[in-house]
Specification:
Bound molecules: protoporphyrin IX containing FE
Number of domains: 2
Strand order of the largest sheet: 1-3-2
Subcellular location: Membrane
Order of helices and strands: EHEEHHHHEHHHHHHEEEEHHEEEE
Pfam families: p450 (PF00067)
CATH superfamily of the largest domain: Cytochrome P450
CATH architecture of the largest domain: Orthogonal Bundle
CATH topology of the largest domain: Cytochrome p450
Structural class: alpha+beta
Helix content: 40-55%
Number of strands: 12
Shape: globular
Organism: Dioscorea zingiberensis
Radius of gyration: 22 Å
CATH class of the largest domain: Mainly Alpha
Keywords: Heme, Iron, Membrane, Metal-binding, Monooxygenase, Oxidoreductase, Transmembrane, Transmembrane helix
Distance between the termini: 69 Å
Family: Belongs to the cytochrome P450 family.
């Protein structure tokens, strides 16, 4: 059953978007593909080749980030279960995030709004939101991670020098249950895994709100209909009565999935799969991955998949029943992965995005591009998929935005 098709050459373990599309193309030519990764390169090959390949450990033990005791590097085992349980019950539990972390949440929002307002005031309404977003989300996630609201300077240092994290460990949450080397790898991992995809998602959402003024207005109307003329913040409880807000966030996660791939998975035992009337063997030990983006852009599931249309997640839309946690229903998108290794921060990430976006939109009069400028929606693959030309990246970029704030 050997597949003789021409194989594309290997590429770096974090492929660019262009390479991803090459892979998608390969998928069409080669049928089901197994990605073999050797740490530096990632080669899509048909199952038959995979069968004869050697796959060693993904990472070098001992490396700070990758000592194989961190959640995403650990195979399914009691250690993985313990690490994951600690994270889920101690840090990312959405109830906890909505109650005991309210103060941190508010402070993060405050950082975002203050920094944007200051910049808008200094620059005649023009802002470059990417830095404010990163600062605010970093503050939020690091504070949740360490269990205390950290000083903003500290947040910056952590963001820039994660190696120094150990000196900041306090005895909150579950971290003190872990051996020292696990804490070292847990923290950078928590921060890498939580800050960057959340930043990317927030920036994509803002861009879409700039690009689609009608969606921005509809969202604003929904928020106002729930909070009325109440001065002050939109509460977490109020978010539950904003289905359109959730639809905007889901649509952004579908259309601009922050992760193009999952963290590679290793096959535990030989598995036979059927595709295009062929039976393929995925051999035990092979490293496999999913093209997360392509799942959310499948034209047989989504009408005009490239369009940004939050209405598809409203009653009657093709995404009405979608659950980003990929429960028992058909999987139509998987921005957080699926199954046992699904992102444990998914609920918290969605909640934080709802909170920040609702309050941000409630606070502004209008978010729009500077006259004559347009939002550039090209992307680039870094650790996660970010905007190639961030909103208002420089005075020469095409994507300056004009933030008109209430006085
Ligand atoms: C919009 C935000 C986020 C996105 C799009 C995202 C996406 C993902 C994806 C695609 C995976 C790989 C799943 C797999 O390999 O099957 C993952 C894993 C992971 N994520 Fe997230 N994530 C986000 C936010 C967060 C947050 C807020 C946290 C922590 C609080 C977090 C912690 C983790 C961890 C620890 C893993 C590894 C899980 C394991 O291997 O068992 N993520 N995430």
């Amino acid at each position: 059953m050997a597949h003789q098709a021409f194989l594309p050459s290997g590429t770096h373990a974090s492929p660019s978007t262009c390479q991803v599309w090459t892979y998608l193309h390969s998928l069409r030519r080669l049928g089901p593909v197994v990605f073999i990764m050797d740490g530096r390169s990632c080669t899509p090959i048909p199952y038959a080749e995979a069968k004869s390949s050697q796959t060693g450990p993904r990472h070098k033990p001992g490396d700070l980030n990758t000592n194989l005791h961190s959640i995403n590097n650990t195979s399914y085992s009691p250690v993985w279960r313990l690490l994951r349980r600690n994270l889920v019950s101690g840090v990312v539990n959405p109830c906890k995030a909505s109650k005991s972390s309210t103060q941190v949440q508010r402070m993060a929002l405050d950082i975002l709004l203050k920094s944007l307002k200051k910049e808008a005031k200094a620059n005649g309404g023009v802002v470059v939101p990417v830095h404010s977003i990163q600062h605010s989300v970093s503050f939020l996630m690091t504070s949740l991670c360490f269990g205390v609201a950290l000083d903003e300077d500290v947040v910056d240092k952590i963001k820039n020098v994660q190696v120094g994290l150990l000196s900041l460990v306090d005895n909150r949450y579950a971290l003190n249950l872990l051996p020292k080397e696990d804490i070292v790898s847990f923290k950078p991992q928590f921060l890498d895994a939580s800050i960057w995809p959340a930043c990317a998602a927030l920036e994509w959402i803002m861009s879409r709100l700039v690009k689609h003024q009608d969606i921005q207005q509809k969202l604003k109307k929904e928020i106002r209909s729930v909070v009325g003329d109440k001065k002050g913040l939109v509460d977490v409880e109020e978010l539950q009565r904003m289905p359109y807000l959730k639809a905007v966030i889901f649509e952004a996660l579908r259309r601009h999935s922050p992760a193009h791939f999952l963290i590679p998975h290793r096959v535990k035992e030989d598995v036979m799969i059927m595709a295009d009337h062929h039976e393929y063997l995925i051999p035990r030990g092979a490293v496999v991955n999913y093209l997360v983006t392509s799942v959310g852009l499948d034209a047989s599931v989504w009408e005009e998949p490239l369009e940004f249309r939050p209405e598809r997640f409203m009653p009657g839309g093709e995404g009405e029943e979608v659950d980003v946690n990929c429960g028992k229903r058909e999987i139509k998108m998987m921005p957080f992965g699926a199954g046992r290794r699904i992102c444990p921060g998914s609920d918290m990430a969605v909640l934080q995005l709802q909170y920040l976006v609702a309050n941000f939109v409630n606070e502004i009069i209008e978010l729009k591009a500077v006259e004559g400028m347009e939002v550039d929606l090209s992307d680039k693959a870094e650790l996660f998929v970010a905007m190639k030309n961030p909103l208002g990246h420089s005075m020469h970029a095409l994507s300056l935005i004009n933030l008109i704030l209430y006085p």
